[in-house]
Every structure is written in structure tokens, then in C-alpha cells.
Write a structure and sequence with these properties.
The structure holds 2 protein chains of 2 kinds. Chain A is mainly alpha-helical. Helix content of chain A is 58%, strand content 0%. Chain B has one domain: P-loop containing nucleotide triphosphate hydrolases (Rossmann fold), CATH 3.40.50.300. Chain B has 15 helices and 8 strands. Chain B has an 8-stranded mixed beta sheet, with helices on both faces. In chain B, helix 7 crosses helix 8.
Chain lengths: 228, 361
């Protein structure tokens, strides 16, 4: 089973292997640009213009990260790309069969940080050196009903009901404080790609002692709807 | 990409007879609704060839489809048949374009005496009885049933009988020339093959139909795999483009099934992996179209969740038209032409299971 674009890592998005050369990445990007260009036959009959734009944006994001050596190295380390572990062995897995990185928390932290003026660099450093500490289980006085949707306002209310500051959550989850705020206020223009958002909301929910699956699934569905 | 209104599949039949009703409805405007729903005992018969378990012979069944007429399916089928037969393999090509059969013409034969309709209407007992000689060593032909009224409106039981017998034909390779459209009577022939080839030409309508065909046959593949599982309903809904559940792609569908029944979802994801048709781009005139197959495969992987690859491209070649006019099989007339060479590469890729795509340099 293939994954949704929003659930793929940058390599999968570009359909290149984890040890792809920069030439391969460049050529993959150019191919994608041809596929999703405005007049391309190959995508116009199956995707709306909006879908094509979105796809191309996602591909550009992957390309920009991977084409520059420094950002690629950072990305690999933060996401935990299997082919480039510190032991130096380089796998070249069929891109399609590779499981996505186990945790995107570190990327999450970085991305969130870029947007905020928070002293997040420290957080990132910390997350690289120490494993994410297990947060003690909490019981939130506010819980979602079985079919209820998690809104940003609900997350804020739940957090406040527990007397937790954003900074505390940020510290525990390694998600930038600004990003947490975007989630709570449903800032559509600021929220990250689905793959990150899924992870952020799961961690946020976990931190509040809420059902992670329910929160992330319903929150994502809601954002998706709001974006339509 | 909503299906053609004539073929759009509404899914509201609560009686459970959806399978046969819809198939017939989709197959033709003159569908006979009097037909009784298939008995559960019959159902697995259709699914069996796909699951590759009870394979009666070692035959490799290859289907050549495309969703659109006039893209060269018959030319490709006959040429691959000749090519493989010339490698010493026993091949039977079957014209499964019921109602629009012309595979025999591509092989330079006149209107045949025996066709599939003789088998369908039981004038002959065995499907082997309608295999005709083609003049090419090792190559047999089963002609399409162009003269039979019921042929293009094949009834469910007839279709099951035909599908199950095709798999028993004694040959190293069986090549099926599939008709245009996305009706189940078309798609089911595509699905009994172990290898599906989708012939596409670099034109918007062909590309669009190919995606549509892929999507519909993938849904059908999953539907058949589910057998009596109630999650079939979800698949049925997905086939209606405007379904309420917002299922727009096969990935959405697999997620929706998983939400409903996680075991069924896992099973279906496994089954999804066995759907791996390949794209053959025909009538390529410009260099930029050489990559169309790879690009389409990429779009299918990214947006439909269908793992598909291109098997090769066939150049546009005037020799095809010339051979056709002479009523000579193209692969006998000009095997050394540009198109001939490309088709030979594709034949080899099919015979030897070459994982790489055959591309004429």
C-alpha cells in the first residue's frame, strides 16, 4: 500500500532513494515540475489545479530541503532517515516500501521554531542530545465525547483546565511554543504540512492526557475542512 | 474525472444483488435486469483466477487494455503474440473485445469461421475448440464474438464460465485483447490476468481514460477480494465518484475500510499490492512523450496509491498503417522497424519478467 503524499518523507515525495545524489534529486524535481506544470497532460486529467499546486508545493519543499547539503543533513538527522544512520551504512531501499520515520518530533521542533522568535535553537539542541523524556501520565478534567471533534479551542481549554502553560507543553513535546499557539488558534496560514501536524497534535494530546488518535484524527479532519 | 454518465455506477441497491445488476447496467444500455443475482457459491469462481491459487495451468495470462478505443490494443496484442511465439513459446491470443472484435484483422485473417460466440452459446463444448491457426508457428487465436447479439452483453454466468475457461487454455502465454470502456464486463477480463498492460497514447482523452480505467479496475479488484465481507459496501460507495463519504481516491478507500473494520483494512492493503498493471505508451512521436509512462506511473503512485510502472514506449510508425493496408500482421511485415523493435523489447520484458522498462534508445 502506498502512502498519501502528506504522510511521506521528503525522499518518498521526490521518489528518490535515501542515498540519492544531488543530480538525482535535481532530476527528480525537474521531472515533477514537468508532471505538475500547468499544461501537463499527465496530471491535468486527474487532478484539479489546486491539487496540482499543492502537490508541487510539497515537492518543492522536499526539493529545497534535500538539494542543499546542510539542510539535507539536518533533515536526515532529525527525521532519522534509515539509510544514513551514524554507523555510516547506506541502504538504498525501494522508496515505496520504507516505513516513515518513527518520530517527526525533532523536525516538528525545528519547523515550529523557524516560525517563532522563541529560543528554540536550544530546544533543538536538547532534542538531539537527549531522548524525549516520557511525560508523566495526566488526567485531563476535560475529555472529548466519543464522536466529538477536537478543536483548537478545546485543546486550549483542556490545557488551561490543567493549569499548564504553553511553555511547559513546548518543553515536554519539543514543539515550538508558537506552533502550539497556532494549533490552538487554528491559524490555517501557519499550520504545517499534514504529516507534521498529525504528529504535533498527537503529542499535544498525549501531553494533556487526551486520546491521541481521536484528537489528531478529528483535528486534522477539521483543518482539512476549514481549508477547503 | 467523473465517469461517463452512461457508465456511472449508482450504488443504492439494498438487495445485495449489486454485483450482477451493476455489471450489466454498466455493460450496456440494453442490460437485462431479469437476471438473478449470482449465488454465493458462484462468486469465488470469478475471484479464483485473480488469487493465483488454483491456477489450472502454468499459463501466464496477460491482458492488454486501455479504457479507450483506437489506441492500438489489437496491434499490441497481435504483435506481442507473434513476437513471443517466435521465441518458441506456445501462445494463444484471445479477442476479448466482445462486440468490437478485430484482432483477426491485425493478424491478417479474414472473418473467422469459429469465434468465442460458438463457445459462449455452447455450440462447441471446450474453449480449445475455437482456437484457430494463424499461420504463425506456436500462435493460436480465439476470435471475438462479433456476430453474437449476447456477446457484448454477456450475462453474469456466461462471463464466469468464459473467465474460468480462459485460464484453462493450454499455452505458455495467453494474451487477452480487452475492449474499451470501464464496464465490469471489460474490467473483469483485465483482472483475471496476472499481468495487465494498459495501452495509452499521448493524447488527453487516452490519458484520462487510462486513469479512469485504472481506478475502476483497482476498485473492482478490491471488491472481488473482499468476497462476502460487509466492507464491500464501502468499496461500492467509492465507485460512485460523488459518494457521501468523500472517498475520492483508492487511498481514501483503503483508509475508510480500515476505519470500519481494521482486519478487513489490513487484508485489503495486502490485496492492493497485487494490483500492478504496467503502462505501454503507444504512437510516440516526440521525445517529450517518451517519459509519459514514467510520469503517469508517478502520478498513480502519488495520487491514487496504485503501484504501477511503465513497461515501454512504442514509436509512431508509418509501417503499421502500411502493414495494415496490406492485411499483413505488422510484426511479420516490418519487425525491424522502430515500432517493431520497441514491441520486441516489450515482449521480452513480459517473457523474461524483466523488471526494467523496455525503452528504445
Amino acid at each position: 500500500m502506498l502512502r498519501r503524499l502528506s504522510e511521506q518523507d521528503h525522499y518518498q515525495v521526490l521518489e528518490v532513494s535515501y542515498d540519492a545524489s544531488s543530480d538525482e534529486i535535481q532530476s527528480a524535481f525537474e521531472t515533477a515540475r514537468d508532471i505538475y506544470s500547468h499544461e501537463a497532460l499527465v496530471s491535468s486529467s486527474i487532478l484539479s489545479d489546486r491539487e496540482r499546486r499543492r502537490t508541487f508545493l510539497r515537492i518543492s519543499e522536499a526539493y529545497q530541503t534535500l538539494i542543499a547539503e546542510k539542510s539535507r543533513r539536518l533533515y536526515n538527522r532529525r527525521v532519522g532517515i534509515p539509510g544514513l544512520r551514524p554507523n555510516g551504512t547506506s541502504l538504498s531501499p525501494t522508496v515505496l516500501n520504507v516505513e516513515p520515520p518513527a518520530t517527526l518530533a525533532d523536525v516538528a521542533a525545528r519547523e515550529a521554531v523557524v516560525e517563532s522568535e522563541h529560543d528554540a535553537a536550544d530546544d533543538v539542541e536538547a532534542s538531539e542530545q537527549a531522548p524525549v523524556s516520557e511525560s508523566p501520565p495526566r488526567e485531563c478534567p476535560l475529555q472529548l465525547e466519543p464522536a466529538e471533534e477536537a478543536t483548537g479551542a478545546f485543546l486550549r481549554a483542556a490545557r488551561e483546565a490543567m493549569g499548564l502553560e504553553l511553555a511547559t507543553i513546548s518543553k515536554e513535546t519539543k514543539i515550538g511554543r508558537a506552533m502550539l499557539e497556532y494549533i490552538e488558534t487554528e491559524r490555517l496560514d501557519r499550520l504545517p504540512a499534514e504529516v507534521y501536524l498529525r504528529n504535533f497534535t498527537r503529542q499535544f494530546a498525549g501531553c494533556l492526557g487526551l486520546d491521541e488518535d481521536q484528537v489528531s484524527t478529528t483535528y486534522l479532519a477539521r483543518i482539512h475542512r476549514l481549508q477547503e | 474525472m467523473d465517469p461517463d454518465p452512461k457508465q456511472s455506477l449508482s450504488v443504492s441497491d439494498p438487495t445485495g444483488s449489486w454485483g450482477s445488476h451493476q455489471e450489466l447496467k454498466a455493460a450496456s444500455a440494453v442490460a437485462t435486469f431479469a437476471e438473478t443475482p449470482p449465488a454465493p457459491a458462484v462468486r469465488p469462481a470469478l475471484a479464483t483466477p485473480m488469487r493465483k491459487k488454483a491456477q489450472p495451468t502454468k499459463s501466464r495470462i496477460i491482458a492488454v487494455g486501455g479504457g479507450k478505443g483506437g489506441v492500438g490494443k489489437s496491434l499490441v496484442t497481435s504483435s506481442l503474440g507473434i513476437s513471443i511465439a517466435r521465441h518458441g513459446k506456445k501462445v494463444v491470443v484471445i479477442d476479448a473485445d466482445l462486440g468490437g472484435a478485430n484482432l483477426h484483422t491485425c493478424l491478417g485473417l479474414s472473418t473467422p469461421s469459429l469465434t468465442l460466440s460458438d463457445f459462449i452459446s455452447r455450440r462447441v463444448e471446450s474453449i480449445e475448440d475455437v482456437i484457430l491457426e494463424t499461420g504463425v508457428k506456436n500462435l493460436g487465436l480465439i476470435c471475438g464474438a462479433h456476430d453474437h447479439l449476447a456477446a457484448s452483453n454477456l450475462k453474469y454466468a456466461q462471463k464466469l464460465r468464459l473467465l474460468s475457461r480462459i485460464a484453462t487454455v493450454d499455452a505458455d502465454f495467453i494474451l487477452l485483447d480487452i475492449g474499451p470502456g470501464i464496464a465490469f464486463n471489460i474490467v473483469d477480463f483485465f483482472l483475471i490476468a496476472e499481468q495487465g498492460l494498459l495501452v495509452v497514447i499521448p493524447e488527453p482523452s487516452s490519458i484520462e481514460n487510462a486513469y479512469r480505467f485504472l481506478k475502476m479496475s483497482f476498485y473492482r479488484h478490491l471488491w472481488l477480494a473482499l468476497q462476502s465481507n460487509p466492507a464491500r459496501k464501502v468499496v461500492e460507495q467509492a465507485m460512485d465518484q460523488k459518494n457521501r463519504d468523500g472517498i475520492r481516491t483508492p487511498i481514501d478507500l483503503l483508509d475508510a475500510v480500515e476505519r470500519r473494520d481494521s482486519a478487513a483494512g489490513r487484508y485489503l492493503k495486502e490485496q492492493a499490492l497485487s494490483f500492478r498493471p504496467r503502462l505501454l505508451i503507444n504512437q510516440v512521436r516526440y521525445a517529450e512523450d517518451e517519459r509519459l509512462g514514467d510520469s503517469m506511473a508517478s502520478v498513480c503512485r502519488r495520487h491514487l496509491g496504485i503501484d504501477i510502472e511503465a513497461i515501454g514506449t512504442v514509436r509512431f510508425d508509418e509501417n503499421v498503417r502500411k502493414a495494415n493496408r496490406k492485411r499483413r500482421p505488422f510484426m511479420l511485415d516490418s519487425p525491424e522497424s522502430a515500432a517493431g523493435n520497441s514491441l520486441e523489447l516489450v515482449a521480452k520484458a513480459l517473457m523474461f519478467g524483466s523488471p526494467t522498462s523496455a525503452r528504445l534508445e
